[in-house]
Amino acid sequence: MISLNQRLRSLVLTAGTVAAAAGIGAAATFNYKKFRLRLAENAAVLNETLPIHSQWWRDHAKEKGELLYVAIGDSAAQGIGASKPNRGYVGILADHIRLSTERTVRVINLSVSGATVHLAVRDQLPRFVKLDPDVVTIAIGANDIALWDATLFETGIRQIFSALPAHAIVADLPCFHLPHNERKVAVANGILRGVAAEFGLSVVPLHTTTKRQGLRSVATQFANDFFHPNDRGYRVWAEAFLPELSADIARRIPQASADAQPGVGGPG
After folding, report:
1. pLDDT score, position 198
2. For residues 6 and 11, what is the distance between their CA atoms, to the nearest angstrom?
3. What's 138's DSSP letter?
4. Could you say which DSSP state residue 144 is in?
5. Which of 61, 185, 236, 240 could form a disulfide with 206 if both were Cys (CB 3.0 to 4.6 A apart)?
6. For helices 179-199 and 150-162, what crossing angle results, to 10°?
7. DSSP assigned state of 212
């Protein structure tokens, strides 16, 4: 997991850039210590939600459903920063599956807050290979940027992608907005897309979708820690997945009402 000091430095740089863009850079500099303390306090508050979100997903994984949706990821898949766990992008996508198929959906959210690609291989992949999901989404790698190691990243991505079914939907890394991070993200996304192509996996444009929101989105689409998305930000994340998810559902999963029609997926 990213250390608190590393995280705070990234948060301060991001928030400082937003402040400068808004023309209040001098005030932000003057209040640097106070601002840093506030960020630390806000991050600590969100950290308290980690076990709450995790427990929520574990409890709901016990619910039965006609379809099984499995998510691999990190704190974003957990919905940290959202007002409720199911208002993260995984919850939004699960609701879309229910509405578009008119079927009940069981969600097994394997994600772990703070997960890197390496940790996803260690902790999530062994559980994933025991499942037979109808829908799979993967958004992992953002936490690798802090201590970037391209070789370790590619090795882990290959291990994950090799275990996925052909219909799995992979997201590239989101936009970090700051140049020093974006350079590493560009390398990571190049690796991710190359490996996905080798395995024939679809990659949704999370980076393009979040970048399109602009730098000011840090002030409007992020939680109080300036690190995790808020409800609005997670809707943007979901928008990146929805076109591919909708197309995949239309190809492979008929609506429940269609199954009931004579001559369509059932007896006449």
Report:
1. 98
2. 9
3. E
4. G
5. 240
6. 30
7. T
Residue with tokens 């690190």: 227
Residue 69: both structure tokens together: 């949706």
Burial of 143 (0-12, 13-18, 19+ CB in 10 A): buried
Cross-strand bridge partners of residue 138: 72, 170
Place of tokens 């932000």: 28
pLDDT digits (tens, 9 = 90+) for 149-170: 999 999 999 999 999 999 999 9
- For residue 242, CA distances in Å to 84, 85, 89, 146, 249 come to 20, 19, 10, 28, 10
Residue located via tokens 């020093």: 180
User: Residue 111, SS3?
Assistant: coil
CA distance 25 to 30: 9
In one letter, which amino acid is 231?
Answer: D
Residues 101-118: tens digit of each pLDDT: 999 999 999 999 999 999
Share of residues in the chain with pLDDT > 70 (%)? 77
Query: Tens digits of per-residue pLDDT, 212-262?
Result: 998 888 889 987 777 789 999 999 999 999 999 999 999 999 887 666 555
Length of the chain as a residue count? 268
- Return the H-helix or E-strand segment holding 204: strand 202-204
Distance CA 235, CA 203 (A): 18
Can you point out the beta strands (E) in 28-75? Answer: 67-73
